[in-house]
Amino acid sequence: MARRTDKHARAHRPLRLTGAAVQRGDGAFVTRTVPAGTSVKAYTCPGCHRPIAPGLAHLVAWPAVPPLGSSTTIEHRRHWHTACWSARR
To answer: Residue ranges per domain, the chain?
Structure first.
């Protein structure tokens, strides 16, 4: 049986830029909602440090402009509980 390619060796999937740019106190971010039906992995919310379970609607946020030293924003994507993102200042 053939082995699967290591996920870290595969090319990044392009971000679907269907979200809206949001200006916050700490910069401009692009956000995209993740409906419950398409959420299949577990993530840790950087706002509350609690898990985002598969099947739970949430959002993904990343900087609109790559931070200094980065050529892309892909590695800066973070999955947030919607309430944690809204409460963020």
So the answer is: 20-87
